[in-house]
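Hi all, long-time lurker, first post. I run a small reading group and we've been trying to get comfortable going from sequence to structure in the token notation. Rather than ask abstract questions, I figured I'd post a concrete chain and ask someone more experienced to write out its structure so we can walk through it together at our next meeting. Sequence below, copied exactly:
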Amino acid sequence: MQTDQGANHCPKCDHEIAVDPQHVTWCDQCDWNVDPTGPTHQVSARRRRREHRLADTLYRELEHGEIRRPGWTVARVGTYLLSTLILVVLPLAGLVGGVYALVSYRPLWIGILLSVIPFGVTFLLRPRAHHLGPDAHVVHREQAPRLFALVDEIAAKIGTRSVGFIELSPYPAIGFSKVGWRITPVINIGLPLWAGLGPQERVAVLAHELGHGKNGDGLHRWVVGSAVDALEEIQMTSRNDESDEYRLELQTYHFNGYSNNAVNSFLDATIGSLARGVQWLLTTADLRAQQREEYLADRRSAEIAGSEAAAGALERYELASTSYRAMEQALRFGSDVDPLEAAAGAVQEIPAREVERRIRVSRLRETRSDSTHPPTNLRAKLIRTRPAQDPLVELEIEESQVIDKELAEPARTVLKELRSALR
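-- Answer (accepted) --
Happy to help. Here is the structure in token form:
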């Protein structure tokens, strides 16, 4: 029964609990109602169990031991061999096969028909560099000198190559990649997440992403990711996609009594199934190495920004949805408040009790950035269980505000496009 002081008693353990009408009422003693909506899993129960076992065993291994760079285990060697087969051997075999068909078979039109499939395999599996999309919002050094100076300082402390440029996005995530044939390092900054971070937490997320560069994760992701992209392209080519208008038009035509739809179904059941199986094998074999890479990048983050800032930045990910919704509402309904200020304010207004509830929910659900990352709560816990570290790079509030001013103009362009999309 609720009291005059705005408190209630837990129906499970009878402990007195605070009531906030704007947030979930829950018990911090027995976790009653801590997760009222329950988990919304997007993957199968079997995969969740496998990922849980992997995350748990890897955490226990690293809790009291040294966090080392992923070694050349059987699984890691296998991923490179399989990726090389997909990206080099099969395209070369297809090229040789296509040329052989053109040279050996006459009349020429028969050779051309026979060469279509091997040349198609070569085209789909060709090695390719990763590139930013044509609508990417890139920030160069001359636009944000203080931000790049911070990135350069962090990179120097870690002992890795700094970034060529920085990409801004309207989504609550921060990532690292290498693009082009020169494999240029790039950091992607999601504006709603960035807006909700404190100065030292910003150092932490930048150090984490640059830590991937130091550990060679960018090149590894470039190789394995290219193989996965090639397999996904094969699946898209063979898939019978009802949203593909071009294929729907082709279905009106028939060839020897078989519709294009039937051909697509056959290709999806054969070539598509094979590609899905190889992709599952590749990603499963690489999962442990990817999770170890994240723990190692977390250690780099703690070394540069300090342990508490690194752990706090990870927990801020649990508030990213709130900052994004606040930014989206400001854009959609034309609020007088700046969208990024609304995002930052929404995070700052969340009371400590609600922050604690969300952290507990993330522990129950084993929330993670994506399927390749360990659960966020385990990553923060591992940072805190190891000896505390003082920061090597510090960012003052005034300097953080200077960076916000540098990003204001390119951020307006990003938000303008998002506003148009929302409307």
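A couple of things your group might point at:
Residues 1-5, 242-259 have pLDDT under 50 and may be disordered.
DSSP finds 15 helices and eight strands in the chain.
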